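User: what does the whole thing look like in 3D?
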Amino acid sequence: MRNVVVPDAAAAVAGLRDGQTVMVGGFGGAGLPRAIIVAVAALGIRDLTVISNNAGIAGDDLSLWFRERIVRKLVCSYPRGAADFTAQYRDGSVELELVPQGTLVERIRAGGAGLGGILSPVGVDTVFAQGKQRVAVDGRDYLLELPLRADFAFVRGRVADTLGNVTYNKAARNHCAVMATAADIVAVEVDRTVAPGALDPEAIVTPCIFVDRVFASPAP
Amino acid sequence: MNGLTRQGLARMVAAHLPRDSFVNLGIGAPTAVANHMAPDSGIILHSENGVLHMGAAPPPGEEDWDLINAGKAPITLAEGGAFFDSALAFAMMRGGHLDVAVLGAFQVSERGDLANWSTGRDEGEPPAIGGAIDLAVGAKSIWIMMEHVARDGAPRIVETCTFPLTAARVVARIFTTLAIVEVRPQGLVASALIEGASLADVQAVTGAPLAAADRIATIRPDGSVVP
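Assistant: Here's the predicted 3D structure for the full assembly of 447 residues, as structure tokens:
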């Protein structure tokens, strides 16, 4: 029987290489896979492209990756209050692609859903329209926004079964549930793992077909 | 001409929100509107990080950091509240399902153009946009709450925004520390003025022409509005 449980965060991030693209779930600290973030920093790799809503504040959040200077490009909606990212941004050693939050998540959804992009009215007549194709539908203008995919998606769930079905805690599902559809390898850190059948099927938010690795890392 | 305090402005906006409506309060000053909503308002508050029907802030010591608002402050869930992912949260915003979004602003133009994400100057931090732009495009009615003038005295209501736009032609109403201004196809219309001020007084600190509504209400110093 399928069993995607791995022993720890190091096993969850195994195979991540220089120059790859990773999605990191979370909104602020909610849904942030902190054990995975620490494990990636320990790999000694560099030049990552990171897709995330925020850029960390301090401690063992994404700011760790900017202190370690392992990120070459950040695709993000709100990199504010992020001292370590800001320091690297200001010396020009990390590129920022700023994306409105709803467009960011919808581009990820498109990547996971096999779509060639989405048409969004957000950003029309603003700097966010620069370099994008404008498409009129029924008299309203939209921007063509291209899909986002990643080599790895790292997210935090609440409980996973050994097949890889995942539930989330309250507002911690935010970008996690969408990112979990849009990467070649999806690794989920959860409070605990259970046997198949232990989760209420109505409560499963990310079905196991999307999930490649899970491991238990009790909530801090 | 003394303007409203932040609290008075929040009270004024809260009193105007329709009963039983779906509302998003932007991060920053609009968040304080929730503190002034009547307990029986029936308003259901949406948060872009995946919460519908936010409740009050939790008592100290009972914070759950998986239950936060868009400003990343801890909240509670009201009875009947729900959680969902960010894609659905923004579908609610872009898809026209919210009745009102209340946002702060640097500038609003007479056509309802909104500039609220960047001054275009290097202020020591990287640019950040978050979800304000999605709200500005998607909610049925966009209300702005802001100081009537900037710290340097420059008008925030202008003929043309000089700061980078968040969205064009989206603002319906502007609540300021001095007035309530409606954005109409023919231009800006003042429907309420702070007590003791004339239309000419407020026009003098406004960067675009203000017409008078048929009846102009009076804004009391506490933020209440009387016909």
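In plain terms: Chain A has a mean pLDDT of 97. The helical segments of chain A are 9-12, 34-41, 63-67, 83-90, 101-113, 176-179.
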